[in-house]
Amino acid sequence: MADEETGTVDGARTGGKFLTFGLGQEDYAISILKVQEIIGMMDVTMVPRMPPCVRGVINLRGKIVPVIDLRTKFEMPRVDLTEETCIIVVDGLAGEMGIIVDRVSEVLDIAAREIEPPPVFGAALNTDYLLGIGKSGGRVQLVLDIERVLSAREAARAAAAASAETTDDAANQETGNVR
Amino acid sequence: MNTNSAAIEDVAATLACVDVDDLVAIAALADRIGSLASEESAPAVAGMLQRAARKLRAVAEDRAKNPSANLAAANKLVAASSRTRKSEPAPPSVIEPAPARSLRPAEPEAAPRPTADESGEADAELVNEFVSESQEYVAAAEQALLVLEENPDDRPALDTVFRAFHTVKGVAAVLGFSRVADFAHRAESLLSPIRDGRARFGSEYATLSLRAVDMIRSLVGRTAATLQGQAFSLPDGYLELMDALEHPERIGVGAGPSPEAPPVAGDTRAVGDAPPAGAPPAHHAASAEAWVRVRTDRLDQLMDIVGELVIAHAMVAADGRVTADQARDLARKVAHAGKTVRELQDLSLSLRMVPLRATFQKMTRVVRDTARRVERRVELVTDGEETEIDRKLVDALADPLVHMVRNAVDHGIEPPAQRLAAGKPEAGTVRLSAYHAGGNVVVELSDDGRGLDRDKLVARALEKGLIDSAEGLGDQEAFQLIFEPGFSTAAAVTDVSGRGVGMDVVRRAIESLNGRVDISSVKGKGTTFSVRIPLTLAITDGMLVKVGGERYIVPSSNIRITIRPEPACLKTVAGRGELVILRGEAIPMFRLHRIFGVDGAVEDPTRGLVVIVGENEGCSALLVDDLLGKQQVVTKSLGEFIGKVPGVSGGAILGDGRVGLILDPVGLTALARQQPNLADGPPLAA
Predict the structure, then answer these.
(1) Structural domains in chain B (count)
(2) Which domain holds residue B586?
(3) H helices of A54-168, where?
(4) Within an 8 Å CB–CB cutoff, is residue B597 touching chain A?
(5) What residues of chain A lie within 8 A of the CB of B76, using their CB?
(6) Which among A26, A49, B157, B292 is least buried, having the fewest CB atoms inside 10 angstroms?
């Protein structure tokens, strides 16, 4: 259902407009149709007992919106906030969500033929949330299935439950800062 | 066509990046989208684009109340239009050039798919309207049937029933819900002989019609469920009831033209007697234009925006240029604006309030059915049904109330013979009343039945091991025993009450609404249950506490007292479980920062504060850094993604625009007890 509902698999094949953003040295791309707005970094209220990648919640015009740290989600090391750090608000299946990225780059046209299937690393790296590798403007963009990135909710729940039981060992290992 | 798809994506991209203050760019976008809409051939897509353009134009012309929200909405619309557009089949002319025209008739079969979204949306709206309207009509019919049972000659009541069945039938037929329409038709036909004067409305008619009402309700409910993608299935007993309605004489209803009404039955009869207080359903149509039906999400949105306004105002009021000595005049104006803003907030809250009338009317039926089944004669008297309460609480209150009413009829009221022997009138009275008290609504349910037998309750509790001794047990505490899980004094398990889901469910339900139940009872005279719940859960009165870099709101209703502990009143159990001794009572202490994993909080309890929350066994002391003051906040959900967080009941926007979490002390205590290394030791009550 994810495929049909989100149209993302289709979206990759047909290409279109993508918002590109950066995490460290890597460039990522998500379909522009998923993007609702881009806001500057703001104070995030921590929500206890969430998986480490859930930074907390923000006030988006009176609405409480969860914020995901994409770096943590991808198990990349944390970095300090910069002027360029911002939150991309996407319209996901579970409502509006913010994702924290290092910087937002530009809106790119990526044609279907410019998108190659995602590489397979096997057990070392899960690439389920990659729709493919885009090659546009002489650069490489990792095209994300943002729904899939965010729909890790069930997994996140399970992780939270498990970490509650094992008294947060895993969580501490991963980032050592949330708990 | 393809160029158009790309154009829409272009617009979407620009829209995502446009600055809300850049009115020129927004105006240009509005024009661009408007022209795309006019070029668009698929009406669904064009419609969405037009709506998006309107939203943007409002922003550009500075008419939008909330420009950012408009932008976001426009963005969603454009995205949706693009999706719809993509699912459009490629124009047939490209694939099959020649016979395009001759193939036309086949096209519409395939074509509606892409627009199904939009038309589905329109349908959903109609269905929603049908559902809510039907529910109202069905409730009115139910009420009227109960009146008719008392007074078979009440013509307006009969008309109300007819109008209800007829309208449901009509609308259901238009929407293609043939099962509902057929059923409503039969229900209507059943009563035709009565309207024509060929039969009299006896209680057997009432029973059958009430069953029909229930069936329509459940049919409508299932229809509504289809909107959530559930398949429609017929409720149990549908066919049987259809049959009964068509041939009522087979089950002894209206058998033979009975010119004289069977005098409304004998001793097994219930007097489900609602004095038709409140408005008769007939007024419904008359004052229709005085009402507006508003979607609840719009009300929520209004609350959100007004909440923002309150915060924005607070920021202005705290600004140095306003608080400066020489700015008195300005300060006065700001204060005046503040008053208006608060009035606006009160008003937006009051929009969510609905009278308890419908809930009380439901109880009329419950009393009737229960009394019938357990062979009691009961009269229900209601009072204060105009008392208003938050819409969300109405539904939440109904279930526990049904249970309590059943209990009152089944366990409270004695059988007629016993009543007569005790010198009481044969028919018992159950009184349901409601009133406002402070920020609460009190719903009282009293009966003039046998009352609670304190000694029996205590004996039972001892036998079940719920208490160790009856010593020092006050009346109130003894009565509260009936709320303990597994406590039931009913000797026989009936299908009415005593199914093991007892009063403990009632108490839990009420407590989940931040309410409580008190009991007073005099043996032989009757029992009164007082349910006290807040007017609304939309506003939380709380204490803002600081823990490390985080701030939390503790609901005032949960706080017993806040103290700065002296070293002398801090004890430990087995070196780990921490206790605060307060007036001789030992209360387990939990460190909030440890439960929630907050860094940089006060570690030394004598330098922080402990907030004592909860009562009895649920009592605990939460260690926090400091109190930041009282605050009234608008309660909000943390959203689907975050879901339910143990120890947290919701969130709120604080005065500085940040989100603060509202604590759920009961859940928090439970959570703290689960964590072995935080604090353990059984809750020691002194």
Answers:
(1) 4
(2) 539-674
(3) 70-73, 146-150, 153-165
(4) yes
(5) 36, 91
(6) B292
